[in-house]
Amino acid sequence: MDSIEACAAHYGDDAQAMRTYLLTGHERAMQLDNRGPISFDSNRKLDSRIVEAYKTYGFYVFTGVLKAEELQDIEQDLEALKKRFPVGPGGKFAANGAPALGADCTAPTLVWSKPLGDPLGGSTLANGRHQVKLHEPKAADDAPEMAPFILLGSLQFSETCLRVYGHPQLLKVAEEINGKDFAPFNETLFIKEPGIGAAVSWHQDGTTHWDSEDFDQDIHGFNFMAQVYGSTAVNGVWVLPGSHKIGKIDITELVRESGSERIKGTVPLVCGAGDVIMCNRQLVHGSFANTGFEPRITVNMGFHRRSSVLNVMGAGTHNDAQVFDDAVIAKRSEVIGYAIDARRQRFPHEAPYEYQPFLEQGLDYKWKAEAKAVLHDYNALDLSI
Ligand SMILES: O=C(O)CCC(=O)C(=O)O
């Protein structure tokens, strides 16, 4: 409630409307039948109730996926990671004078924003998909001028995120939704520090397949959003349930019909630390600036059907546009192999995931010092559609 009050207080004349929106959205989200542990039936198929709920709403909250030990690893790793951030946008050095994270990368890494800003909203960035600009609340006087809020190509910087990516149950879910030969999309961190974290205006993620004759609700893939600290109505992503089935939506019109940026019918992705949300990329979704007191760090990892990316000209949203032929997809998929092995080394009691394309080709990846160099700039090949 403290965060809800703090958030509402940033909305001036709309404070009461924002308070009501946050409270009712939270209640409605908690009433949906789309949360629970990952579970498979006796044939090792994803529980049909999960599949049905995901199809209906476009998202599912998997509870208790990352256990306390793993969360602790991630928290420590992310604290160390933040110390490696450059002191400002494009900077080459961290505060301690060491070369900054990403300073030697050519593929994009950190995206910065003014505190509580909405840098994408209403801009032509990312193919103009963030059609409206959200309210940019005033940050505290002592807030930094600029702060990082997205880290692209995150797996090259964080071994703990790489291990999350290799999680056997999550990869099995990716297989169930996108087929045994599923392909990666991209991996990012969304960093929403209290009082600083920027908004990500309402959007749908897909770009390339809206007019495809094979269009369906899964054609642009999905993201896993693993929560390090949990996600709330104040700091979390909001979604319009069911909107993933409709096609390309005029968001400006939705906002107009709703009478404000608080789009009618939307609900927040509410969950605890260690929960992982599976979120269809076609859902109308976005997040407000984090004016509350709780941090949200999302370990984001997307997956596609192979047919959605094979020989497709990329959207150029996350990297330079290129055609994704077999060789590009195979190269980009190596990270799955490294992730599985990195996880096996840290959690040897778990049965590692077996990725069908590697089995078919006799490929076996070992996570060791040289492999780290292979991941440098790996996101230049993000399968961005
Ligand atoms: O985490 C957020 O705030 C935004 C996430 C998002 O827009 C995405 O994953 O496409």
UniProtKB/TrEMBL annotation:
Q: Which GO terms describe its molecular function?
A: dioxygenase activity
Q: Which InterPro entries match?
A: Phytyl_CoA_dOase-like
Q: Where is the signal peptide?
A: none
Q: Which Pfam families does UniProt cross-reference here?
A: PhyH
Q: Does the keyword ATP-binding apply?
A: no
Arranged from A to Z, the UniProt key words for this protein are: Dioxygenase, Oxidoreductase
Superkingdom of this protein's organism: Bacteria
Answer yes or no on keyword Cell wall biogenesis/degradation.
no
For this entry, the protein name equals Phytanoyl-CoA dioxygenase
Q: Species name for this entry?
A: Candidatus Litorirhabdus singularis
Q: What is the lineage of its organism?
A: Bacteria, Pseudomonadati, Pseudomonadota, Gammaproteobacteria, Cellvibrionales
